[in-house]
Amino acid sequence: MAAVTTVAVVDDDRMLLDGMKAWLGAVPELRLVATAATVGELIGAPAAAGPPYGPARSGYVPPDVVLLDLVLRDGSAPADNIRRLLRTGSRVLMISTVPDRSRIIEALRAGADGYLTKDNDLPTLVAAVQDVAAGRGTHSAELAFACAHDDRPDRPRLSPRERQVLLDYASGMTLKSAARRAGITVHTAKDYLDRVKAKYQQAGRPAYTKLDLARRVREDSLDGG
To answer: Helices 175-182 and 160-170 sit at what angle, rounded to 10 degrees?
Structure first.
């Protein structure tokens, strides 16, 4: 029997929440476990709590994936909302009415696993939730557009070979396997990887470990381009 992915939705649009209940209720592989107008309401943290925010209520069981509206009427910062949810153990899929390029990138930097606009259909949403739950992230058209036009100075410019070695190594390959795939020596592959790390260091986004590099790949959507 296939595993069921638990989902919560944080949005202050009551019509959308009702629509999500109907939509997700028809999908056997997903189970909607909670809806809320704010992150604090979902996790049971005191409404008056500010950064760094208090812990979730005792007994709170984090869903596998939280669908989080980008802009909520309580004035909370999207990055803060994302980090609060990540601390509970959930993964986060951002949803919004419009593809705002700068906010998409900000959400990824805060740790969100994907971004969808609310005009996508149910199969697209289901596929995105399943990808996020599996730790793959989701590569939507909105996300690809934002990352393709991300020209901020903190996004390093990598050569094709640097990018290839980074992607292979960050995906789980050993450096030896990444070098073999690229048709280069291990020493040369290490040089490319060291250059990548140096570029991220210079951009103010250090990446010391393989996990750090995997995070940078996801933040910059390098594997979706």
So the answer is: 140
CA distance 56 to 41: 10
Query: Given CA atoms 90, 63, 97, 79 in this order, what sign does their dihedral have?
Result: negative
Please provide the DSSP assignment of the chain as one string: -PPPEEEEEE-S-HHHHHHHHHHHHT-TTEEEEEEESSHHHHHT--TT--TT-PPPPTT----SEEEEESS-TT---HHHHHHHHHHHT-EEEEEESS--HHHHHHHHHHT--EEEETTS-HHHHHHHHHHHHTT-----HHHHHHHHT---TTS----HHHHHHHHHHHTT--HHHHHHHHTS-HHHHHHHHHHHHHHHHHTT----SHHHHHHHHHHTTGGG-
Residue 207, token pair as written in the block: 């990446």
150-185 pLDDT, tens digit each: 556 667 788 878 888 898 898 888 999 989 888 889
pTM to 2 decimal places: 0.65
Query: Are 105 and 154 a contacting pair, CB within 8 Å?
Result: no
Render pLDDT for 20-53 as a digit per residue (tens, 0 to 9). 998 888 899 999 999 999 999 999 866 555 565 6
